[in-house]
Amino acid sequence: MKVLGKSFLDSQALRSLGFKAVGEDVQVHETANIVGLERVAIGDHVRIDAFVNLVCGKAGRLTLGSHIHIGAQCHIGAAAGVTMEDFSTLAQGCRLYSVSDDYSGETLTNPTVPEEHRRSESGAVRIGRHVIVGSGSVILPGVTLGEGTAVGALTLVRQSTEPWTIYAGCPARPVKARSKKLLDAERRLLGNL
């Protein structure tokens, strides 16, 4: 077993690395792999766990609001932009893609092939306030998860969701409405900060 050092880097240590912005009370596990630091902005009270990959291509942007948790082994491909709004959560092993290759077989695929020989689908991904995404779920390009959306584990989300709705399945389907009681807890928390 390899024993790592401090485990989490704090806001002060992260600011010295060249991020676009880092708020207060931010923790990023030392095993996180972050490409394009200068295009990553992180709000306050954010925790990014072990073995997370955050990849911002040359034109990509990743914006994380406040009170956000990204669980271990998540991957965020932000080549076309990804935004996670306040109080959003990705459970372990989630995958978010803002760009995807063409799987039809009509063009070549993968980043080693020049762009003129490829065709890809791209679109910014937006994770709204109070969204929670269950373990192993996949979010595809151009999707907006509306405020308060809950996505069950192992769900494939190909289309944007309605606010305050629980989704599950492959592909994602609405299951039922989600309670808004957590908004009262948010008001109490923010009133105490």
How many strands appear in the DSSP assignment?
23
Number of helices: 2
- Uncertain residue segments: none
Strand count, sense and barrel status of the largest sheet are: 9 strands, mixed
What overall geometry do the principal axes of the alpha carbons give?
A: globular
Rg from alpha-carbon coordinates: 17 Å
Overall pLDDT confidence? 95
Question: How far apart, in Å, are the first and last alpha carbons?
Answer: 39 Å
Main-sheet strand order equals 1-3-6-9-12-17-20-22-23
Measured by DSSP, the beta-strand proportion falls in 25-35%
H/E element order: EHEEEEEEEEEEEEEEEEEEEEEEH
Secondary structural class: mainly beta
State the helicity in percent bands: under 10%
Please specify the SSE layout and strand pairing.
Layout: E1 8-9, H1 11-15, E2 21-22, E3 26-29, E4 33-35, E5 40-42, E6 46-48, E7 53-55, E8 62-64, E9 68-70, E10 75-77, E11 82-84, E12 89-90, E13 95-97, E14 99-101, E15 120-122, E16 125-127, E17 132-133, E18 138-139, E19 144-145, E20 150-151, E21 156-157, E22 165-168, E23 173-177, H2 182-192
Parallel strand pairs: 2-5, 3-6, 4-7, 5-8, 6-9, 7-10, 8-11, 9-12, 10-13, 11-16, 12-17, 13-18, 16-19, 17-20, 18-21, 20-22
Antiparallel strand pairs: 1-3, 14-15, 22-23
Q: If you had to describe this structure to a student in words, what would you say it looks like?
A:
With 193 residues, the protein is mainly beta. Helices cover 8% and strands 34% of the residues. It is built from two helices and 23 strands. The strands form four sheets. The chain has a nine-stranded mixed sheet. Strand 22 and strand 23 form a beta hairpin. The longest helix is centred in the last third of the chain and has 11 residues. The radius of gyration is 17 Å and the shape is globular. The termini are far apart. 35% of the residues are buried. The model has no long low-confidence stretch (mean pLDDT 95).
